[in-house]
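B., you asked whether I could sanity-check this one before it goes into the benchmark set. Here's the sequence:
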Amino acid sequence: MTKIRDVKVEDAERLLEIYSFYVINTAITFETEVPSLDEFVGRIKRITARYPYLVVEDDGIIYGYAYAGVFKDRAAYDKSCELTVYIDKDVKKKGYGRLLYDALEVRLSEMGIENLYACIGDPVEEDKYLDKNSENFHAHLGFRKIGTFYKCGYKFDTWYNMIWMEKLVGTHSLKKERIDLWKDNEYTYPLAFGFKPNMVSYLHNDGQKHPCMVVIPGGGYCVVSPTEGEIVAKEFYKMGYNAFVVTYTTNILFKEPLMDQPMKDVSRAIRLIRMDSEKYGIFEDKITICGFSAGAHLSGSVCVHFDDVSDENETLNKISNRPDSAILCYPVITAGEFAHRDSFNALIGEDAEPDKLEYFSLEKNVTKNTPPTFLWHTATDDLVPVQNSYLYDEALTKAGVNHTLHVFSFGHHGLGLADEDWANHRFGEPYTYEQTFNTVQAVKDNLVEVSDEKREELIRDFSEAKYWPDVTYPEVALWPEMADAWIKTTY
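And here's what the prediction gave me:
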């Protein structure tokens, strides 16, 4: 069984055994002599006095270790640190390095560390002592190369370069603000119970312009799920985007079909962002909408029906609500054979007319003006069949729309980021549940009539944000990097 744990002093002999190979046989470490056991113990004690130092073991045997260290010994650098990792030479492709780094990131984030650095030996030309594996490993984990020191290390009668790689894991000067989308006299959904659709910003306060990511969580048009809100916005923030999470109108009571109200909410959000692009520090022609499940259906609805959604505010109505690109994650697409029926029941009602079903079957409404789209799904989705993405992919292909589809081999519905933070419920604030919480309170106060069964369900399941244990899905967790690369290529 694989286990990540804190180092112990008695681990030093085994760790030194792992490290010694790299000193004697490689130029990975620029150290030329193997330290004594006493010296190595001293290093462990000095590091653990301030930073985490972790080992990975399998069935009780240590196969690698990683630790954080001082980046520069000045107070101004206290939110930065340097990472180091070594894995037993005989272990390959077990994922131990990633496990160690993921665990380190969590610990360092809890300490308030914002920047991670790696100092890596780099061959002028690859040889038997040094290759590009470490650089590639760090790049795969989200580090980027930021500088090179040329021919600064000399070992095995050879000059080697040294590179610095960086990963920003903190939010630095993040500017977070709630923006209501509607004024009191503009918003009339009858079961809002005091809720107003809104968006929350995650902005770089650096005076620069950034591409924009508008995050639309899912929830079957019944709720707006916190599991796909702040955590996603912060992920794209770290990748250089200014992001917004939209909390739109939902219908958990199945009493008042939503119709086009969610599209109006999201269209208003896009128009406000475009109108105030200078204020928000975004490129007004680089707005990506990123939706999940029913939120992906909502995102796709705006992508295919943007011309249908006018705004009663004359100034805003002159501004385009068309996203420049879209990311649709395990999307609800069709109202046909492979429909997620509850989503459509909440949106347009159980007895919706055929023309409504046709209108909200997105695969039937794609045109050449539909924005470029990044689709992803899992082949084993147990709630929204992968055929939804296949149908949209086919429609985009026929219309000649730039798009890509990634179907991951395994995973249930609703995987979000599928990473360590997601699996451990580090979703951020559950503010997207505002209308849900208000509705539950209205039920408790007998302000709305519901069956005893529905009342019990709402109070039991939605009085607070509840999450269930899960694990990481390393294959699926790659999607934000893939989407970012696709967006950059598309723009």
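One thing to flag: The longest strand covers residues 144-155. Otherwise nothing jumped out at me.
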